[in-house]
Structure formats: structure tokens, C-alpha cells
Amino acid sequence: MATILIVDDDPGIVEVLQAYLSAEGHIVETAMDGIAAVPLLARANVAVLDWMLPGLSGVELTQYIRTTHPDLPVLLLTARGEIENRLQGLDAGADDYMVKPFSPREVVARVRALLRRVHIRERIVVGPLDVDVSSRQITLNGDTVNLSRTEFDLLITLAQHPGMVWSRDRLLERVWGPDYLGTTRVVDVHITAIRRKLGDDADAPTFIETLRGLGYRFRES
Description:
- The chain has helices spanning 11-23, 34-37, 58-68, 83-92, 104-115, 149-159, 168-176, 185-198; strands spanning 3-7, 27-31, 46-50, 74-78, 96-99, 123-126, 129-132, 137-140, 143-144, 208-211, 215-218.
- The protein is an alpha/beta fold.
């Protein structure tokens, strides 16, 4: 399971690609213009961008991604098939390029290929903790741990990137979304709930560490 961002101002294309990618088991987020896509980038594992977008063009958005999210794979869609246009898109930082009209099945295949380059851990095992991402099942010492949907999403966000420090603002955007109007205090509350269910000690954590003034990270081992 991955999060795929589709950015296209053609509702028909968005609807078809969303249906095909969802059928693959992916979470699909969409935007109709380049500017609206910016706050969604932090949650994406692959971005599928149309070349001709209002706000920011696909090429401009690709350039922005390379500056702010350098590891995010980009598939650029365009009606321009000339070699010069293809080179322009690739030079901007796109990982792959498809000319319209295209088969939705081929887009799915291209996305699948891009995901193979991204390290998305489907199962996370740390000592007695076993997290199956695809089935959303968690066991600790063989016993099932029941987390809410938000708690689970928060845990796997941290656990899929062990050692990476996540600020409260970034976790808020990633898990609750850019439109959430609450404060970052909600992150602390949910981390406390996760720790309680995992038997984690905040002063000597087994799983989730607090870095004062910085945020949280999942222990690497």
C-alpha cells in the first residue's frame, strides 16, 4: 500500500487513474492544479503530474519537488510527444514520462516500477513488536495491539522511517492532512496513547523517542 498523488485538471483522467490505482490497494490523493498539490506532497510516495496545469505547470512542480522532496518519484503525463519536450521534463527531474493518450494499466505499471525504487516497508519488526502494514495488524509479544486508525497511521509514519526525526507540524500535515485546524498538541496526545498501548516508557523508550524541541522518531533498533 502506497500513497499516490495525481495532479491533473482533467476530471475524467483523474477519475480513471484513481479507480485503477485504488484497485491496486493504494491510497490516492488528487489535486486539480499545481499549487493545490504542494501541501499534499509530504504524504505521497509517487506523484503523477500532468504537464499542462494551472497555477504551477507539471514541469515547475517537478522542479519544486526536486528541491523540497528530492526522493519523491515523479511520473509526468503530457500530450507533447516531441523528443525536446521529453528531455525538458526529464531534465526538470521527472523519473518517467508518458505521452497521452495512454492506457491506465500502463500508468499503474509505471507507478509500480517507481514504487520498487522507494523503500516502503510492508512489515516492521522491532524486537517483540510486529507491525503488518498491509493488513493493519499489530502484535506485541504475540498479543494483538488495538490502535485507532489515526494512532496506526501515526505509528507507521514513524516506523517506516526509523531514525528520521519528524516535527509535530510535519506529522500533523502527514497524518491529519493540510486542512486540519487543530494544534500540534493532538500529536502529543496520540503519541502518549500509542506509548501506553505499547508499554513504551517515555523516559527510556523502546520504540518512539522524543527529541526535545525537534519532535519524534522511531528507534532504529
